[in-house]
Structure formats: C-alpha cells, structure tokens
Amino acid sequence: MPSNQEVSAVSTILVVDDEQVLVDVLCAHLLKAGHVVIGAKDGLEALEICHRQGDRIDLVITGIRMPRMGGIELGNQLEALYPHLKVIYMSGYAPSRKELKAGSVFLEKPIPAEVLLSAVNAALHQAKEA
Asked: What is this structure's pTM?
C-alpha cells in the first residue's frame, strides 16, 4: 500500500463550496499534505474546471447545497462524464438517504483535518485500485 506521500505527489483535488473560507481551509490542509488543489465556488464552476482539466483531477470534494448547481447534481454529472473520478460530499446538514447514492462518502462540517485527510487518502487508494 502506498504511503500518504506517494499518493499525495500525484493527486489533484478539486474543492467545491460556496463558503470561500471553508474552501480556503480545506485547500490549506490538502496542500500541507502534498496535494495539488483547485477551489471552486459552486457546481457550475467546478464542472467548467473539470472540462478544462480533463483527466488531471483525481478527486472532488463538494458541498451538497450551493447556488447555481449543488453537489449532488455535480456528482451525478461528473460520474457520467468522468467515471474514474471519485467524489466526497460534505454538508453541515445530514443528507437524506435519497440524496446520496449507496457507497457515497459523506463528511459532516466542520471537518477536522485528520478526518478530511483520512477520507481523501481512502478515496484516492480506492481510485488507484479500480
């Protein structure tokens, strides 16, 4: 199993949320862990970034409720367009079972750094094994 450093060196993560402070904090934790990070303010901006970046994005961490396009719709579109891409959902409110597909990863805000990094590393390892 690769170490966190090995996974980090090649991982590009897109962080999506309408709370800029949260995006900044999560990006700082991910940068410190060695990841390349990109921030987006909502699902539409994230989708545009994914279209430009193509297969270079390894993981998306997205808020669920955002203006213009929420995280669930973003995740559904990304799954159809980029099947290799893993998505982690986050919210200050627990989503209903109908909102998230079985097997989806959900983190409740506020997200401690160690919980974030553990979920990211698990998702990246799972993506590499697929």
From this structure: 0.90
